[in-house]
Input
Amino acid sequence: MSKHKIKTGKNKHRLLKAFLFILLFMIIASGLTVGINILINQNFTVTFYQIRSDKVSDNIRIVELADLHNVEYGKNNSRLIEKIKNLNPDLIFYAGDMMNYKDSNYSVLFSLSDKLSEVAPVYACYGNNEINQYLFEDKQFTEKLEKHGVDLLSNEAVDIEVKNSVVQIVAVSDDLKQYDIETNNSKKFMESLEPTGNCRLCLTHYPELFKEKLLDKGIDIAFTGHAHGGLIRIPYIGGIYSTGEGFLPDLTAGVVTAQDGTQVVISRGLGDSRRIPRINNRPELVVVDVCWY
Output
């Protein structure tokens, strides 16, 4: 009887050692994964998309920046600026959250905008950080940004000439919860938009608006961000979480065709505002070539 007890005790001891070994291995592996991703995320990748449109007569290159959150790539964003210069864009879009709410130091955004506005016209929409900064912290924010060469649009539409084509840029400010509120302007603005034969490009921070709210609005291509790529990306599954859609979101990256045919470009973003590190989710600069052929 005593021998059987001793043998059982040894087995339990071996199982405990095996469990502790596996636990230690998992902790080390997790730490290495986080550490490697933090190093990888010190730089950004460039993602190219081609979207065909018979509403333009020349190819138009658009560089999209989203969710920078005051991150810098090189001193004064020198690496980011140099890359964008070399891409030779016709338009540059800010799709929101280029800075942080309650941070009155705009030097990163303003310095970047000064340089990029010399490369191509820069258009922007509000992200949640910019709109909150404007509403609750700094009523002069929009005016200050525009002095640095950025045309920040809020529930507005402008027609501009690019090469030999005229395109319409539409900017929508409100998120999914705010879109229908009567005191806001997004729904009223979109309902008042006249049809156009020009290529309609939409700037809005929130891709989830294209599940319902912004369908059938004559939008050809939309430029969005906000989801941060889903924070942690798993192969064949995609992002794990986004603020707009919660866990296992549908709209976190790439080009998604909405039900009405709108091509929704979703940037994974260039920075982050959360303490959770980006895993398998390298920051990205998005380049969209709108092609007439």
